[in-house]
Amino acid sequence: MPTRGIYLFDVARFPVYLDTSGLIFIGLILLLQMGGGGVLGILGAFLWIVAIYGSILAHELGHAVVGRRLGYGTADIYLSFFGGVAVWSGRTSRSRRDQLLVTLAGPAVNVVLCILFYLLMRFPPLFVGMLVPSLQGLIGDLYWINLILAVFNILPIYPLDGGQALRTALAYRIRGSRLLRISLQVSFATLGLVMLYAVLNSRIFLVIMLAQIAFQNWQEWQQVRR
Ligand SMILES: [Zn+2]
Q1: From CA 12, how far away is CA 212, in angstroms rounded?
Q2: Residues with CB under 5 A from ligand 1 (ion)
Q3: Which residue in 13, 129, 156, 225 is deepest, having the highest Cβ count within 10 Å?
C-alpha cells in the first residue's frame, strides 16, 4: 500500500495520486534532463515527465477501467518511482478469468500505444514536423517508454503483471505452496536473465529496480519454501 502522497486529479472518476517515491523520481529526471540548461532543458524535462507518467497512467487506467466493468468497484491510482498501482476499494477476489483480464489490460494498453507511436514515427502526419519539430522527438520517446512498459510488465516476474498473470494461470492446475514456489522459481530465473542484460549494458536504474524486486521475491521464498 503506497503512502497517499499528493492528490493530482480525477481521470474517468478514478482519483490519481503522486506518492513520495514519484516525487523523488521527478526530481531525478529534472536533474538529469536539465543538463542541457536554459529554457529548452526545463521544457525537455517537463515533456519527459509528462510522457513517462502519461504512459504509466494509461497503463493503470487499463487495469482500472476493465476492473470497474467486471464489478471490482472503484480504484485509487498511485503514480510512483517509474511505476504505478491501482488500489481497489471493493472486493477483488473474482474468478480467475476476470483476474487475468484485469491484470493483462494494463500491459495491453502499452502495446496498443507502442504500435500507435511506432506508426506515427514511420508515417508522420505533415503537421508534426512543420508545427513543432520537437514533437517528432517526443513521439520517439513515447514509443520507447511504452515498449519498455509493455515488455517489462509482461515478463513473468512477481509481483509485476506478467508474474501475477502466470500465478493466476498456474492456479488452474496447481494449488497452495507448490504454486507459489513454481511462480517464484520462474520469477528468479527471469530476474537473473534481465539482471544479466542490465549489468552488461550498464542500465543502473534497471539494476536497482531488479534488485528491489529480487529482495521481495527472496522474502516471499523464505515463507513458502518450508
Ligand atoms: Zn500493471
Answers
A1: 32
A2: 106, 161
A3: 156
**Do 56 and 63 touch, CB atoms closer than 8 A?**
no
3-state SS of 124-135?
A: CCHHHHHHCHHH
Query: Residue 122 has what pLDDT?
Result: 86
pLDDT tens by residue, 170-219: 999 998 889 999 999 999 999 999 999 999 999 888 899 899 999 999 99
pTM score: 0.89
How many helices (H) and strands (E) would you count in the chain? 8, 4
The residues spanned by each domain of the chain are 156-226
Question: What's the 31 CA to ligand 1 centre distance in angstroms?
Answer: 27
Ligand 1 center to 80 CA (angstroms): 12
Which residues does 118 contact at the CB level (< 8 Å), separation at least 6?
A: 143
Report d(CA 206, CA 129) in Å as an integer: 33
